[in-house]
Design goal:
The chain is an alpha+beta fold. It has helices at 9-19, 30-38, 44-56, 76-90, 112-123, 141-150, 170-177, 180-202, 209-223, 226-229, 243-270, and strands spanning 28-29, 60-64, 70-74, 99-104, 127-130, 133-137, 157-162. The protein contains eleven helices and seven strands.
Length: 271
């Protein structure tokens, strides 16, 4: 499991579109992307390079504003990814729903698809119960289904809903299926970066929209990766004093304090 991602230009652009880009009046002009990412310390060449990579991946589509300026809109696949992400990033984990299991079998002649499937399921937050048997909280069923359809791998996978019946205690099994110490470090890294920011904002009015936008963008950029590493594991199955609880509280508080001012800054940039 990788460490907490740094704020790369590409990640920040995805975060910007996810947090605010869908509310932008039309495709986002390149000049506005440069201005909005500049508030987070990203220079213009880095923005243009990251946009080019996202375009090659099919997430951004070249467009023009009504005035004819170069701009970028979200592709349909990108919108679906962001809609799925909203449920993860901003929603509290659902409890007591059981599990969704993904069992796949790939012919030797197409073994490259095994890597694609493993990477996709891991990226969705699935744990591994056995070779070729992956599982996650049942609330991920719909997202898993259309993700597998989107990457052309649905024909190799069977999906099941179920509950864990033994023989080990479910909490012990979860500790085998997921790397909980690595997850805890990710949450602790988030708290190290953003808990002090929250304390600072709680002590003063949100009077600087540009600063609020920057801190909100960085917080969402840090947080949005975590629900994919931890797919909403039930609290009762996790260790005592699990840092994910506090991390979620800090993120929700920052989002609640800063989202309005941040959105206002974005709207002002696009007007």
């Amino acid at each position: 499991m990788s460490e907490q991602p740094i704020h790369t230009p590409r990640s920040l652009i995805v975060t910007l579109y996810g947090a605010h880009g869908r509310d932008f009046p039309g495709p986002v002009p390149v000049a506005e992307l440069i201005r909005l990412l500049g508030a987070a310390g990203v220079d213009a060449p880095s923005v243009r390079s990251a946009v080019s990579r996202l375009k090659r991946r099919g997430l951004l589509v070249p467009a023009r504003t009504e005035a004819g300026a170069a701009a970028y809109a979200l592709s349909s696949d990108a919108r679906q990814l962001l809609d799925d992400g909203d449920r993860r990033v901003y929603g509290a984990p659902a409890a007591g729903e059981g599990w969704v299991l993904a069992v796949f079998s790939v012919p030797e002649s197409e073994r490259a698809r095994r890597h694609v499937l493993r990477s996709t399921l891991s990226g969705l937050g699935f744990g591994t119960a056995a070779p070729g048997v992956w599982l996650a909280p049942a609330g991920l069923y719909e997202e898993t289904r259309h993700t597998l359809e989107r990457i052309g791998c649905a024909g190799y996978v069977d999906l099941f809903r179920g509950e864990h019946l033994g023989f080990a205690a479910t909490a012990e099994a979860v500790a085998r299926w997921w790397d909980l110490p690595a997850l805890a470090k990710l949450y602790e890294a988030f708290l190290d970066e953003h808990e002090g920011v929250l304390r600072a904002w709680e002590g003063r009015p949100v009077a600087d929209p540009r600063l609020a936008y920057r801190d909100h963008l960085l917080a969402v950029d840090s947080w949005r990766h975590l629900p994919y590493a931890d797919p909403g594991l039930p609290r009762e199955l996790l260790p005592v004093d699990w840092p994910g609880v506090r991390a979620f509280e800090v993120f929700r508080a920052l989002d609640g304090l800063l989202r309005g001012a941040a959105a206002g800054y974005v709207r002002a940039a696009g007007s």
